Amino acid sequence: MDTNIAKTLTSFAAIGLAELNSKAAMLERLDNKYILPAEAFRPALERFSEHFDVLEIDGKRAFTYATRYYDDNELRGYYDHHQGRRKRCKVRVREYVDAGFSYLEVKLKDRRKVTVKRRLKVNDPANPLNHQAVEFIEENYRDIYSEGFRKLLQPVIAMQYERITLVAKEGGERMTIDTSLHFDAGEVSRAVQPDLFIIETKSARGNGIADKILRGLHLHPTKRCSKYCIGMAATGAVDRQNKFLPALRKLRLSGQ
């Protein structure tokens, strides 16, 4: 992580995981994503300290996440997002490396364009998409879209990154800050420069305190900034990627 960003984080008050979840679980939310270099992000982070606390567990404030995304043979999860379809679903297994456990997560968009995230703890890491998991995906897809999921999933890309989580002191809003991203698909690996950050703001109306601070500094959201889609495009795993080119240009990816 950029050393100046790490230093700025020391000015934040700490909050524990249980209190964070009670204040702002944000499993249903409107979100905005920003790709920012450290020098542009630091002034915003300094202002965030007045309004947000930082998640701290056992003295740590940055946590390693390892995530594997699943899609079908036609990559319909990717192309539904690329084409901007309302009915779209992303399925992933996220390992919280520092804590030593994993969750199956299903992300969908409802009729209000609100992101709905449902998750199930993984009890069999060797077979995360077992019968129980498949039923969980089907149940939640049908709950949102009133039709069957009808996709046979397989792992398509893995990624790892460090995440910092902020929660508003008054609750009801949270923000994630991701850095040191690394994508692996097949034999292709790509990495994001460590002085670049993907910031995701999550609030009930999509215009929270963090968005107002960023906008006041003339920093604006990056459209079509799904880490799954960016990773698939960056590693050449897909044929069509033009909708994600603006985000890719900002990330300055390296690797082979």
UniProtKB/TrEMBL annotation:
Residues 29-234 form the VTC domain. Coiled coil: none annotated. It holds the Pfam family VTC. One of its GO terms (biological process) is polyphosphate biosynthetic process. InterPro entries: VTC_domain (IPR018966), VTC_sf (IPR042267). Gene3D superfamilies: VTC, catalytic tunnel domain (3.20.100.30). Signal peptide: none annotated. This is VTC domain-containing protein.
